[in-house]
Amino acid sequence: MDRSSLLALLVAGGSTLAIGVRTGNFELTVRHACFLILPLVVIAFPEVSDFIYRRSWAGLAHGGEGPTPAVVIRLAAWLLLIVVVLVHQYWGFVGVQ
Total domain count for the chain? Predict the structure, then answer.
């Protein structure tokens, strides 16, 4: 695991811990953790994520001609991670659960 993956894991773990401590609701905490799985996996394995995305059920490639650079995939996954964390933290702050 590289620095980006470890930092993403730290952000996701801290967010999950904050939701759990603040709300005390186990179901909401588990739901929040499950929402964070996709961005974490994409950040940890960007090349595999790109390969899976580019293959259809018939095995035919779609999308661009070449693979997407890992930096672009990680950037998109980081944006998704930040949005999910902020949305859940904000909803918990205003009391919408």
Answer: 1
Q: What is the pLDDT of residues 1-29, one digit of tens each?
A: 789 889 999 999 999 999 899 888 898 88
Which whole number is the average pLDDT over 66-90? 84
Which class for 92: exposed (0-12), middle (13-18), buried (19 or more C-beta within 10 A)?
A: middle
Mean pLDDT of 49-73: 68
Domain containing residue 18: 3-94
pTM above 0.70, yes or no: yes
Q: CA–CA distance from 73 to each of 19, 29, 37, 50, 53 (Å)?
A: 27, 27, 15, 8, 11
* C-alpha pair distances (Å), 37 with each of 43, 47, 66: 10, 17, 26
Q: Is 47 left (phi over 0), alpha (psi -120 to 50) or beta?
A: alpha
For the record, the structure tokens of 58 come out as: 């018939």
Amino acid at 80: L
